[in-house]
Amino acid sequence: MSVYLGAIDQGTTSTRFIVFDRTGRIVSLAQKEHEQIYPKPGWVEHDPEEIWRRTKEVIAEALHRRGVRPKDLAAIGITNQRETTVLWSRKTGRAVYNAIVWQDTRVEDCVEEFSRDGGQDRFRQTTGLPLATYFSAMKIRWVLNNVKDARELAEAGDLLFGNIDTYLLWRLTGGVEGGIHATDVTNASRTQLMDLHTLNWDEGQLKLFGIPKAVLPRIASSSEVYGVARITAVEGVPVAGILGDQQAALVGQTCFDSGQAKNTYGTGCFLLMNTGETPVLSKYGLITTVAFKLGQKPAQYALEGSIAVTGALVQWMRDNLGLIEKSADIETLARTVKDNGGVYFVPAFSGLYAPYWKATARGVIAGLTRYANKAHFARAVLEATAFQTREVVEAMEMDSKVCLDVLRVDGGMVANDLLMQFQADVLNRNVVRPLIKETTALGSAYAAGLAIGFYKDLEELRGNWGVDHTWKPQMESPTRDRLYQEWKKAVTRSFDWAG
């Protein structure tokens, strides 16, 4: 009898396979990192073949660890880094170029070119998205225009596009031997090519970007059987759930009702609020996106605040500056001082995302004096995440007209008690961490489980959610206001540095 669900969690820095039981508890987990490729300043790439190898390795490892057999898995879900763009040959399965990662800024000039005619928000009404280097369409266009023979292959129908979910689904279900070329509505909504209202590829957008429709996958719901796995470790297991990573975390946090929100602290930080069956177009710098579509039920929409650099800033401090040996050391170092010593770190390495959308911003460290030391740096790095989150929360409350009474949190950084306490302090509201912290992978497993009847309904999933820890604000209002105003001042120093 099939008693478990599997989830492929393909993230920006690593790939994981997690086996969950019916209650959402982890039975087994395997994880492997992949190389970050930086060919030029602002360019970020991944090797799709390496990602596929890592995916197969972690699946086999996680199953072997606990003696789980393919027949023990009821279904597999996929969750993925969004916007990261791959184009590959339908005939050989080989990518014509490395995957262009969501953080990559090489299409900055194209964004400016498109913005000149109609402004940065010219596509918001159709796609819910501002013009930015972030989304997939510009990346597809870059590959077609810059990689030898790519456009000819695309016009001939021999080239396939996908974000990482689509690429993995195709490889998992047979590849060149009949692999399924599909994506779900959440990932499609991040391409800037899908009409938010019809949930179909928009012919006008395709024409403007010069993208042949033949390269695009079929748009499906987030919860249905797309096909069955055809690799040895999981041979015959249905692949039945796909959600972009942040939408998957929303499902994993069981934010099924309008007004519920979660914040995921990973490489970047992503705050999503469920807005129900009607898309809400942002006036305050947020993104309108699809939250999920479960089978035949109507799509649910979300407002999203996307912050490019949070956990990545801790990695940068570790790898580029060598101030800590491992990421977890940052909390220990930061606790050796009582405050930030007046130091503020604005991590606009690839511009600023929500709520500013300034591609020409660059990273700034402000407020330095001779008093400042590496512990103040560590504190400023953590506080940058909390300050950026407050900016997004304020924008979200103005757009949605909903006041968040608590913030549900997940992701790797929520293990950092100092950060979570400061987050509660700077927001002046409770911050709640759930019992099950792997909410991203869990969300895709839930979607897969719903598709095959492993779960009866959403109420059963809500019953799995529970509180692990709550942080309550302890900071005095004058201190909170002063710190936030100083942060805002530092942010303005990062504007218009490039270009």
Q: What's the β-strand tally?
A: 21
The geometry reads as globular
Q: Name the helicity range.
A: 25-40%
Rg, please? 22 Å
Strand content: 15-25%
Overall pLDDT, averaged? 93
Task: Identify low-pLDDT runs.
Answer: none
Distance between the termini: 60 Å
Total count of helical runs of at least 4 residues = 16
Structural class, by secondary structure, is alpha/beta
Main sheet?
A: 7 strands, mixed
Name the strands of the widest sheet in spatial order.
Answer: 15-16-14-13-19-20-21
Describe this structure as you would to a colleague:
This protein is an alpha/beta fold. Helices cover 33% and strands 22% of the residues. The chain has a 7-stranded mixed sheet with strand order 15-16-14-13-19-20-21. Strands 3-2-1-5-12-11 form a 6-stranded mixed sheet, with helices on both faces.
SSE layout:
Elements: E1 4-10, E2 14-20, E3 26-33, E4 45-46, H1 48-65, E5 73-80, E6 85-89, E7 99-100, H2 108-115, H3 124-127, H4 136-146, H5 150-155, E8 159-163, H6 164-172, E9 182-184, H7 185-188, H8 203-209, E10 218-220, E11 223-228, E12 238-244, H9 245-252, E13 261-265, E14 269-276, E15 287-292, E16 300-307, H10 311-319, H11 329-334, E17 344-346, E18 364-366, H12 374-400, E19 406-410, H13 417-427, E20 430-434, H14 439-451, H15 458-462, E21 467-471, H16 477-493
Parallel strand pairs: 1-5, 5-12, 9-10, 13-19, 19-20
Antiparallel strand pairs: 1-2, 2-3, 4-7, 6-8, 11-12, 13-14, 14-16, 15-16, 17-18, 20-21
Helix pairs in contact: 9-14, 10-12, 12-13
